[in-house]
Amino acid sequence: MYMTTSNVPFRLTHPWQGTDPFLFAVFHQDAFPAGDADMGPGSARPEGWSMYHGRKIPGFPAHPHRGFETITLVTSGHVDHTDSVGAAARYGQGDAQWLTTGGGVTHSEMFPLINEDSPNPLELFQIWLNLPPESKTVPAEFTMQWGEDIPVHQAEGGSVRIIAGALGDATPLNPPVNSWAADPAHDVAVWLVEVKARQSLTLPAAKNDATRRTLYVFSGNAEVEGSTVTAGWGYQQIGQESTEITAGQETVRALVLQGVPIGAPVHQHGPFVANSHAELQQAFIDYQETRFGGWPWPTTEEVFPRDAGRFARFPDGSEQRP
To answer: Which of 79, 122, 200, 290 could form a disulfide with 246 if both were Cys (CB 3.0 to 4.6 A apart)?
Structure first.
């Protein structure tokens, strides 16, 4: 599951390979058409996108997770979220949702096609960040980072959107309290990097000599520390080294994930991540017995009205908007 090769380019698989403390990352890029009255594609079935597991609306109906965190960054399009602890949200257009699954949560992630008279492109990253053994069964925590609040580090050669991990004078928003990223000593960073055509951008050296940094290039062709890393390739380095990224004839976009490894055994089966086979078996038993709190929503593919706007509703009933 984890990458171990260092300081060399590697071809990206699906999902993108993870480097401890990250399990993996998934990149969705879909050219969804205009939506019908139900915010689905109706009879339109062009190439270049998928319904995933949705029936009328693309997305992922209710499914369980345990033992890790999901960080979902949506640069275009929207996601409608509902979960078993009562949280709900519509987010997108640069927003990020950070969900600690801990001891267990069931959630639905649907992609409503809000625009009726124009296409609904979706670009989404979902990153799985592992939890250490002592946090595997903490209470689930739902947090939102609105795009308007996410700091951006500006450099002469480009920019970096900062979901986690301070960069220059830009300080990230707080991660969930039980996250591996909550302790600065773990040097966790989630950065969305953009380097202008024929320009260079340098990421500073890691703060910890155990830190592992991985770049995932998904657009453009780059030179990374003298190695050619084209779209669909990644680059991993270990230790306290700066990282110079130089773009070719077009803008380079890359996701950067870094952190000090957790170093614990990983046993994963589908949506559950544990430290032993016995813990993994217990996760399935617990889900069968409790459904991680049940499902308080009318459907397993819940979406909100077209005009709902971006919002987050927390389990205590409080609501937040950008």
So the answer is: 200
**Average pLDDT of the residues in 74-94:** 97
Structure tokens, 152: 């951006």
CA-to-CA separations, 102 to 20, 98, 105, in angstroms, rounded: 18, 12, 8
What is the third-level CATH fold of 1-11+151-264?
Jelly Rolls (2.60.120)
What pLDDT sits at residue 3? 63
The mean per-residue pLDDT over the stretch 102-108 comes to 98
pLDDT, position 4: 55
Tokens representing 296? 């308080």
Domains 1-11+151-264 and 22-150+268-295 share a fold: yes
Residue 263: which pLDDT band, with cuts at 50, 70 and 90?
Answer: very high
How far does the chain reach from its first CA to its final CA, in angstroms? 36
Q: What is the DSSP string of 4-40?
A: ---SEEEE--SSEEB-TTEEEEEEEEEEE----TTSS
Q: Which residues contact 261 (CB under 8 A, 6 or more apart)?
A: 19, 20, 21, 210, 212
Task: Tell me the pTM.
Answer: 0.96
CA–CA distance, 77 with 120 (Å, rounded to integer): 6
CATH no. of 22-150+268-295: 2.60.120.10
DSSP 129-167: EE--GGGTTSPPEEEEE-TTTS-EEEETTEEEEEEES-B
Distance (Å) of CA 196 to CA 154, 156, 222, 234: 12, 9, 11, 18
Q: What percentage of residues in the chain have a pLDDT greater than 70?
A: 98
Residue 239 is predicted with a pLDDT of 83
Residue boundaries of the structural domains of the chain: 1-11+151-264, 22-150+268-295
Q: Which residues pair with 71 in a beta bridge?
A: 98, 127
Beta strands in 165-303 (DSSP E): 189-195, 200-203, 212-219, 221-224, 227-230, 233-238, 243-247, 252-259, 267-269, 272-274
- Cβ within 8 Å of residue 90, ≥6 positions away: 78, 79, 80, 81, 112, 304, 308, 309, 310, 311
